[in-house]
Amino acid sequence: MAKLSIHADKPGPIIDPNIYGHFSEHLGRCIYEGIWVGKGSKIPNVRGIRKDVVAALKKIKIPVLRWPGGCFADEYHWQDGIGPHARRPTVVNTHWGGVTENNHFGTHEFLDLCEQLGTEPYISGNVGSGSVREMSQWVEYVNFGGKSPMSDLRKKHGRKEPWKVRYWGVGNESWGCGGNMRPEYYADQYRHFQTFCRDYPDRGLFKIACGANNDDYAWTEKFLATLGPGFIKWPSHIHGLSLHRYIVPNVDGKRGRALEFEEEGWAQVMAQSFRFDAMIKKHQAIMDKYDPDKRVAIIFDEWGTWYDVEEGQNPGFLYQQNSLRDAVSAAVVLNTFNNHADRVKMANIAQTINVLQAMILTDGAKILLTPSYHVFDLYSAHQGARLVPTEFKEARGYRFGKHAMPALSASASLDAAGCLNLSLANPDPSKEMSLEIDLKGYRAGKASVQVLSGPKMSSHNSFNGPEAVRPSRPLDLGNPSKGLKLQLAPRSVNLIRMTPLKP
């Protein structure tokens, strides 16, 4: 029997709710149809924004939403997306499918969506094809409440008070689609652009620089070295460094389908999910050289699984189904983010609707919640709670072919009500795990567990079977005062909730 010790007597940092953030790009059917249907649509909406999507996202307590990209951000000129819809110029989305968009979903619509959701907006500025002036004026338009050309323009378009957006990305994937820049060159661009992103009254900015792709540690080293320790220490210069990591299986030279895979495809996704831990540690070690006080946060503003698009879909729309494999992968990654809460302060899974590892799929007026959605619903218990260290002693790991990894992924937290929340993922697709849980420094009164699993590795929800994969109802685990013993189902995500023993 494997043993997991929970050290509630050694509480760690707060798990930033923004770790459970999301990403919505002008890509495929994410914005148009997924979020925006227009005011005249027969699909129920509020000012053109789907009511069913807003209700579903509010349930998982979406804390922050990134927009408009992604690669799209560095060809997006924000003034094309304001004012009366009839006067907005169209734009060709050259990155994603070559489709023409009407710009009906712009700054006002995005910030209306965030207000409906009760979520913090995160805007990615255009460094790749935009100008310093353009980005500076966007910040002014959105955040300045006094009299100025941009605030007057905002009022002309119907918004009197500023939105006061805190999170701003200074470019996106500048090493690739955002300009194919070298880290030294981007560092100078970052220094330049961020200078003119002003802190207006009652809203200091949280500025996020473009960091590395996956394990490009040289980018992190050269970028930070070029900025220099003195620049990094200055309070208003840089607050976050973004990292992007996609989980992409390679079976016979192909990513493979989201639902058509054997255990090799499962094992590759699980192994890559566990590798987030090593990647964070290596980037963090470099950051600690230039930022030993951990002022600059790691921001995973794009992450998730990536497969071949579904048959019959536009290849540039990146539409894929979502299975139990994606749910277990998300649980492993989120546990890793929780366990690095001292440095990881935000993450934005790609993407919210109809694209890559989506939370929601739509088909006209129909809506579908994916297995990944249910993981975010379960794990919302960790938002804003205090991390509790866990220690796992295992008799075996999960191994398939050349892929070897731990037998368990876990994270734990104590919330404001004194409840202990423990999330567990069993990556083994065929074997149960016998687990004994030892509580240190916590006296539990009651405990319950919810389990997310399914009969197959590819179990998924469809419009014909929308509830094939969903969490079980809470199952009573009895009195955990002497610890817990339980069997974790194969290919499962589990959330154990414990309430404190009353005096």
Q: Structural class, from secondary structure content?
A: alpha/beta
Helix content: 10-25%
Question: What share of residues are in beta strands?
Answer: 25-35%
Distance separating the two termini:
32 Å
Parts with pLDDT < 50 across at least 5 consecutive residues: none
Number of strands: 26
Q: Radius of gyration from the CA trace?
A: 23 Å
* C-alpha geometry: globular
Biggest sheet architecture: 8 strands, parallel, barrel
Estimate the mean pLDDT confidence: 96
Assembly classification: single chain
Put simply, the count of helices is 11
Strand order of the largest sheet: 2-5-8-9-10-11-12-13
Protein architecture, described:
The protein has 11 helices and 26 strands. The chain is α/β, with parallel strands linked by helices and 503 residues long. The two termini are 32 Å apart. α5 (183-195) packs across α6, α8 runs parallel beside α10 (324-339) and α10 (324-339) packs parallel to α11. β3 and β4 form a beta hairpin.
Quick rundown:
Helix content is 24%, strand content 26%. It has eleven helices and 26 strands.
Note the main attributes of this structure.
503 residues; alpha/beta; single chain; six-stranded antiparallel beta sheet
Task: Give the arrangement of secondary structure elements.
Elements: E1 2-7, E2 21-23, E3 45-46, E4 49-50, H1 51-59, E5 64-67, E6 91-93, E7 99-101, H2 107-117, E8 120-125, H3 132-143, H4 149-156, E9 167-170, H5 183-195, E10 206-213, H6 217-227, H7 229-233, E11 240-247, H8 263-274, H9 276-290, E12 297-305, H10 324-339, E13 344-350, E14 360-363, E15 366-369, H11 371-379, E16 386-388, E17 390-393, E18 398-400, E19 403-405, E20 409-414, E21 420-426, E22 433-440, E23 444-452, E24 475-476, E25 484-488, E26 492-500
Parallel strand pairs: 1-22, 2-5, 2-13, 5-8, 8-9, 9-10, 10-11, 11-12, 12-13
Antiparallel strand pairs: 1-17, 3-4, 6-7, 14-15, 16-20, 18-19, 20-21, 21-26, 22-25, 23-24, 23-26
Helix pairs in contact: 3-4, 5-6, 6-9, 8-10, 10-11
